[in-house]
Amino acid sequence: MAGLILEARGLDVLLEDYQVLWGAHVDVGEGEIVALLGPNGAGKSTLMNTISGLLRPRGGEVVFAGRSIAGLRAHRIVREGVSHVLERRRLFPYLTVRQNVLLGAYNPAARAGRDEQLRRVTELFPLIESRANQLAHTLSGGEQQMVAIARGLMARPRLLMIDEPFLGLAPRIVDQIVGVMARINADGVAILFIEQNVERALGIAHRGFVLESGRTVLEGRAADIVRSPEIRKVFLGG
Amino acid sequence: MKRALAAIVVLAVLAFPLVFARPFPRHVMIMIFLYGALATAWNVLAGYCGQISLGHAVYFGIGAYTSTLLIREAALTPWLGMPAGAALAVLVSQVIGYPVFRLRGHYFAIATIGVGEIVQTLFINWDWAGGARGLFVPIKRPDSLLNLQFHESKAVYYYIALGLLALALGVTHWLERSRRGYVFRAIREDQDAAASVGVHVAREKHVAIAVSAALTALGGTFWAQYVLFIDPESVFPLSLSILISLVAVLGGVGSLWGPVLGAAILVPLSEGTRVLLGGTGKALDLVIYGALIMLIAVFQPSGVIGLARRFRRDRRQATGAAQASSA
Fold first, then answer.
1. Is B93 part of a structural domain of the chain?
2. Could you tell me the CA-to-CA distances from B310 to B4, B6, B234 in Å, in that order?
3. Which three-class secondary structure string do you get for chain A?
4. Has residue A2 got a pLDDT over 80?
5. Given an 8 Å threshold on Cβ–Cβ distance, is B186 in contact with A103?
6. Which of B189, B198, B201 sits opposite A95 (nearest CB)?
7. What's the domain range around B233?
8. Domain membership flag for residue B36
9. Is residue B103 within 8 angstroms of chain A, CB to CB?
10. B49: three-class secondary structure by DSSP
11. What is the number of other CB atoms lying within 10 angstroms of the CB of residue A96?
12. B 163-192 residues with CB < 8 A to A
């Protein structure tokens, strides 16, 4: 494996005065696809929000491409090359598809190559062109997810983080998005994503991390995790 | 067609004082322009950027007090006092924004009410600035543009108020088409998503409140020169802050013409009840506003401008259908 592009370790994170993460860690290699797994309330989204700067950790370290980014604000972290597609897509509902996507290239580093990146992203998601002037909230869930990923890619990230990319989507749409993730990854972009369905997640990912109650309880190659007895314990409580 | 209609409206507005020489109709129009300008300024922060402020009287009052105190202390023309007031309002808005923008939604709105009350109390107790007694703008005769005082006719006030409204609309129009306008709307629609695409949310909010405060302060100076007396009760009250937002909400938040439309409806209503009912009718206009706002909130949350848009769309569809059936 090539070097790590992201390494988060020992993260303690509190929401208000409730501690959600207890020394959690995750890492992603260059060009790798990593799944972040765990039951509801395990802290997966909190961990991702902390990496992207929407939350600040009380303790711990986040290193991206050799630089410490823990505690930087979200708009700075995007510039470093981390793009975060939030849970439930979170498009700007009353802006058009095109406006949504272009806002993804808001940061100065991405703005320069915006047109070229738009062309590349449109190849992945033709609906950006065919639905350019449609208001985002009128799209179906699957279409919204594609626009959300497209918006994330416009920042020209080296690491794309997607929180629950398949949530509430039809199987056919899920396959489509899985295909797009593979193509994005083939272009050299590392991907970290959250998913509840272990088998599906590990069918896509190279490696996985399993969170439970705010701690990283299991990590390893996808094939190993699927077969491990611990994974049953985490998800079935057995 | 549309352009011709716009030209007619512009000409009518420009020619209005020539046709109506009596003070009252001119006064009503001046108030429409002033409240239209204030609501348009408020709309920059609240309508586009989504930060509902109920403390905009602070900036109005700062505009009024700055120019008036500069006349008293330095005999400075209000034309310089006006930008000075705007500059001070921008400064104050940044100081207020720093803590208050950490709050979201209702909490932000409530905090702005609190700040407004604090500022009003400060001025009531600030003797150098006139305290609770307020300040008279020193009367200068004869009328002069330099002193921004006109005792013979309201015509010049009319055009100055119109100019303020045009400025506020011009800024909003520019904003609507600029990249910054999209960024403001992105913050309004989803602040976290905006941050996640790299928008420096805090900075953009500070820009929005600066623009909004500056335009509001200009209106404050104009008001001081128009009535020639200001006190904390008249320029810093919560009721003014609320009125500014009501005007915009009634007309249509987040649209260019909505706030003007709101002013064109509410100002005649308020002036009309005042004239018809005198002191006994005090606040009756607010009772009517209240009812109107409730109707709007229930049936047309995008304001009167939304109603107009719907009407136009329906008509276009109707004519479209007629053409289709005749073809």
1. yes
2. 22, 20, 38
3. CCCEEEEEEEEEEEECCEEEEEEEEEEEECCCEEEEECCCCCCHHHHHHHHCCCCCCCEEEEEECCEECCCCCHHHHHHHCEEEECCCCCCCCCCEHHHHHHHCCCCHHHHCCHHHHHHHHHHHCCHHHHCCCCEHHHCCHHHHHHHHHHHHHCCCCCEEEEECCCCCCCHHHHHHHHHHHHHHHHCCCEEEEECCCHHHHHHHCCEEEEEECCEEEEEEEHHHHHHCHHHHHHHHCC
4. no
5. yes
6. B189
7. 23-238
8. yes
9. no
10. coil
11. 17
12. 182-183, 185-186, 189-190, 192
Percent share of chain A, pLDDT over 90? 88
Q: Is residue B311 in some structural domain?
A: no
Q: Which letter does DSSP use for residue B300 in this model? A: -
When scoring B49, B191, B197 by the number of chain A Cβ atoms within 10 A, the one with the most, hence best to mutate, is B197
* pTM given for the model: 0.91
Compute φ and ψ for B31, nearest 5 degrees: -65, -35
Instruction: Work out the burial of residue B326: count CB atoms within 10 Å of its CB; fewer than 13 is exposed, 13-18 middle, 19 or more buried.
Output: exposed
Chains A & B: contacts with CB separation below 8 Å: 67
pLDDT digits (tens, 9 = 90+) for B147-177: 999 998 899 999 999 999 999 999 999 999 9
Of B189, B195, B200, nearest to A94 by CB-CB distance is B189
ipTM: 0.89
* A207 in contact with B, Cβ within 8 Å: no
Tokens of B180: 């910054």
Using DSSP bridges, classify how beta strands B135-136 and A215-221 pair: parallel, antiparallel or unpaired: unpaired
Judge whether residue A238 has pLDDT over 70: no
Q: Which residue of B has its CA nearest to A82?
A: B196
A86 → chain B, closest CA residue? B193
Nearest-CA residue of chain A relative to B254?
Answer: A94
- Measure the CA–CA gap between A40 and B99, rounded to whole angstroms: 34
For B83-105, the pLDDT digits (tens) are 999 999 999 999 999 999 999 99
Count of domains for chain B: 1
Domain assignment present for residue B261? The answer is no
pLDDT, tens only, B38-70: 999 999 999 999 999 999 999 999 999 999 999
Q: Does B206 touch chain A (CB under 8 A)?
A: no
Please tell me if residue A95 touches chain B, with a CB cutoff of 8 Å: yes
